[in-house]
Amino acid sequence: MYDWVHRTNLWVARSPIGRWFLLENSGHPRERKGSSFFTEIRAGLATFFAMAYIISVNATITSDSGGTCICPPESQADLCNSNTAYLLCVQEVNRDIVTATAAIAALGTFFMGLLANLPVALAPGMGLNAYFAYTVVGYHGSGMIPYSVALTAVFVEGFVFLGLTLLGIRQWLARALPASIKLATGIGIGLYLTLIGLSYSVGIGLVTGAVDTPIELAGCASMLRDPTTGLCPDSAKMRNPTMWIGIFCGGILTACLMLYRIKGAIIIVTYFPYTELGDSMFDFFKKVVTFHPITHTLVAQDWDIAKHRGQFGLAFITFLYVDILNTTGTLYSMARFAGAIDERTQDFEGSALAYIVDAVCVSIGSLFGTPPIAAFIESGAGISEGGMTGLTSCVTVGALMCKAAAEINWRYYGDSIPAFLTIAIMPFTYSIAYGLIAGILSYIVLNGTVWVIEKITDGRIMPPNKDEKDPWTWRIAGGLFPPWVRRLARGKKDFWRPENEDVVHSGGLEAQKHMEKREMTEGNTV
User: Fold this and answer.
1) Which ranges of 287-308 does DSSP label H, i.e. alpha helix?
2) pLDDT (mean) for 262-268
3) Which stretches does the entry tag as region Disordered (predicted)?
4) Pick from 466, 330, 459: which is nearest to 411 by CA?
5) For the chain, what is the mean pLDDT?
6) In the prediction, which pLDDT does 516 show?
7) What is the pTM of this model?
8) At a CB cut-off of 8 Å and minimum separation 6, what does 176 contact?
9) In the list 51, 131, 306, 326, which could disulfide-bond 378, CB 3.0-4.6 Å?
10) What is the Cα–Cα distance from 409 to 413, expressed in whole angstroms?
11) Cα-flanking dihedrals φ and ψ of residue 225, to 5°?
12) What is the CB-side half-sphere exposure of residue 386 using CA atoms within 13 A?
């Protein structure tokens, strides 16, 4: 068996497929050591099982916005939570998003592998979909702008992201953000998702808004809550059976299954209530394998944005910047883990094509009705291996996203305080955008003050542990413009081809050093 596997790996490596994907023994000058056909197939299957949960979770979160369904005025008091016709429409939107999520994830991941040759999967991003559903559109359409206008913002953001990538500005924007805030963004999104999973609107109802305090313990049935304040009677707190089902089945049981890396937990923790809506869900579930055409969310953009200018702009800017941060951070981490980072330019092979694929898929995904697409960290780490679905999965995913807290530089207050504000403001204001704004502004004020005092006193007054500060610079090695622009400016016909490939064929190490020195010089003066 081993001999057959080895022969097959060798045969594929020496084929045109092997040279295209730079497999080991392909004879390509940039072949990737340790890569083989069966290893890549096995890794692809592991990635699929690690991120399959996004199909269910993204559909649940996105459809909570109500999609294209219209809540009639007489039912808006409770946001149509008791309107069966509206809820059935939302259920159809949920099924549309299931199909859309699977389609765009398959399409984006395929082209990421084929064109950029990176083992990275694309799908609607966790965090971005929550911001899309609960802040921009709002639960059942109670947010800033309608669902169709939000899709327009996502569509435009994809093309702007594409332009920034081609011009190299994307790399500068990502590098300009301090490392502590980059890490804190993911943690803040994790806590944001956790609060969503614990709330009544789409979660298990463990907490609710309060009068004397921001939130308080809840856990009663929805019909027992005070219609004005939303509070639970003291005698009914923590007595809702649905909440306990969510805690034990969707939380503790799922976590135990994840401890043992057990696949298929998605089936164990799925619950269908015995109602008209639950019966419809179970009928769809019993089909096992079926294709549901996209009927409500396909090309649902609304280009009449005149009356939503301010909110449209805020949503667009947040989508753009968070997409840049998410995708850049994930791809950079994966390339660093694989040892593919160029320490001189802090870039990696295939980065331009990777960002182009991501940008195009963002716009295509919006045509399907999904929030912005992002690269998934599960592509390499498999942090969500094992199934999880339903509302409590928001809490589980939030816990996984918070593990980056250990990597924040807590030793220097100029890094740690902005990071903490980013983490805290996101869930407490129910907004990713406000968290980023708080973190960036506090970083500028704190570190700008230190810089001014240091300049005024000629370096005599400065923090005693400033040497522990994370390094930061707005400059990019090689210049702002990407390598392909510099090659085009030199008149190189095949400007899209990496320079180091030509060096390997024609000049050896000394020529490569000379080429790197020349590109560095041209990059600083272009």
Assistant:
1) none
2) 51
3) 507-526
4) 466
5) 77
6) 41
7) 0.67
8) 474
9) 51
10) 9
11) -70, 150
12) 21
Specify the pLDDT at position 266: 44
Residue with tokens 């463990």: 206
Which residue reads 């992002």 in tokens? Answer: 374
- 66-114: per-residue pLDDT in tens? 999 998 888 887 888 888 889 989 989 998 998 999 999 999 989 988 8
pLDDT above 90 as % of the chain: 17
Burial tier of 227 (Cβ tally within 10 Å: 0-12, 13-18, 19+) = exposed
Q: How confident is the model at residue 507 (pLDDT cuts 50, 70, 90)?
A: very low
Q: Which helix (H) or strand (E) holds 215?
A: strand 215-217
Question: Please, where are the H alpha helices in 127-247?
Answer: 128-130, 147-167, 169-176, 179-198, 241-245
Provide the 3-class DSSP secondary structure of residue 524: helix
Reported in sequence order, the residue ranges of 72-142 that DSSP labels E, i.e. its strands, are 122-124
Is residue 199's pLDDT more than 90?
A: no
Q: In Å, how far are 391, 392, 466 from 223, measured between CA atoms?
A: 19, 21, 56
* Token pair of 8 as six digits: 């097959």
Look at the block and give the residue holding tokens 């059976």.
241
Tell which residue, 367, 303, 361, 330, has the closest CA to residue 158. 361
3-state SS assignment for residue 294: coil
Q: Is the pLDDT of residue 235 over 90?
A: no
Determine how many CB atoms are found less than 10 A away from the CB of residue 377.
25
| Comparison of pLDDT for 384 and 466, the residue scoring more | 466
Q: Residues 6 or more apart from 282 whose CB is under 8 A from it?
A: 272
Note the pLDDT of residue 41.
80
CB 12 within 8 A of CB 37: yes
Tokens for 437, please give them.
């704004």
Q: Output b/e per residue, 401-412; b: 16+ Cβ within 10 A.
A: bbebbeebbeeb
Place of tokens 């921009």: 136
Please name which of 359, 400, 460, 412 lies closest in space to residue 155, comparing C-alpha atoms.
359
Cβ-contact 357, 111 below 8 angstroms: yes
Name which residue leads in pLDDT, 424 or 523: 424
> Rounded to 5, what percent of the chain is helix, strand, coil?
65, 5, 35
**376 neighbors 104 (Cβ within 8 angstroms):** no
Mean of pLDDT values over 478-503: 65
**Residues 478-500, mean pLDDT to the nearest whole number:** 68
Q: How far is CA 145 from CA 138, 313, 433, 435, in A?
A: 8, 11, 15, 20
pLDDT at 264: 47
347: left (phi over 0), alpha (psi -120 to 50) or beta: beta
Distances in whole angstroms, Cα of residue 482 to Cα of each of 331, 340, 357, 526: 17, 17, 17, 11
pLDDT at 224 over 70: yes
CB 120 within 8 A of CB 382: no
**Contact predicate 219/454, CB 8 Å:** no
Q: Are 388 and 150 in contact (CB under 8 A)?
A: no
